[in-house]
Specification:
- There is one protein chain.
- The chain is 0% helix and 52% strand.
- The chain has no helices and twelve strands.
- Strands 5, 8, 10, 11 and 12 form a five-stranded antiparallel β-sheet that branches. Strands 3-4-9 form a three-stranded antiparallel β-sheet, with no helix packed on it.
- A hairpin with a 5-residue loop joins strand 1 and strand 2.
- The termini are far apart.
- By secondary structure, the chain is an all-beta fold.
- It is elongated.
Length: 155
């Protein structure tokens, strides 16, 4: 099978333990003991995930600031979340600028979400712009689909 495994079965089945290209050989022998060998390369890939990843949770903001009172200045903002899945390919961070219209009972708050960034599956934090009024949420994605969203935070 090209991975230091072999079988003498008429119809062998084999599962590879890792992705890669393997040189597979078939040897046949007739009743008189004559043999012939043929070989072919086989490319093995990881199977696609069969399940959509679980949504991340516990999204938190960390606001870095300097100064006090009227002299307080926000110098940076980062987001961090909990990874609740083991099969995501990436995390997608979405943002929106909250807008309010009307007053009193007629007051409405809206938010048009868009993709802000995406990060690798092993990354559970990212920096975001220092801009007030933005809301953020995170979802996980793989080839099987997209998770639900984390909780939202507002900067």
């Amino acid at each position: 099978f090209g991975d230091n495994n072999a079988a003498a079965d008429i119809n062998p089945l084999h599962t590879y333990s890792a992705s890669g290209v393997y040189q597979v050989s078939l040897t046949v022998m007739d009743d008189q003991g004559a043999t012939d060998v043929t070989s072919q390369s086989v490319s093995v890939t990881e199977p696609a995930p069969s399940a959509v990843p679980v949504a991340p949770s516990d999204l938190q903001k960390n606001v870095q600031q300097s100064g006090k009172g009227k002299n307080r200045t926000v110098t940076g903002v980062s987001l961090r979340w909990s990874d609740n899945s083991d099969n995501e390919a990436e995390f997608v961070i979405e943002s929106c600028l909250e807008s309010t219209s009307g007053k009193g009972k007629n007051r409405t708050v809206s938010c048009d979400w868009s993709v802000h960034d995406s990060v690798a599956a092993d990354q559970v934090s990212t920096d975001v712009p220092v801009s007030e009024g933005y809301r953020y949420r995170v979802k996980a994605r793989n080839s099987a689909g997209t998770s639900g969203y984390s909780n939202e935070v507002t900067i």
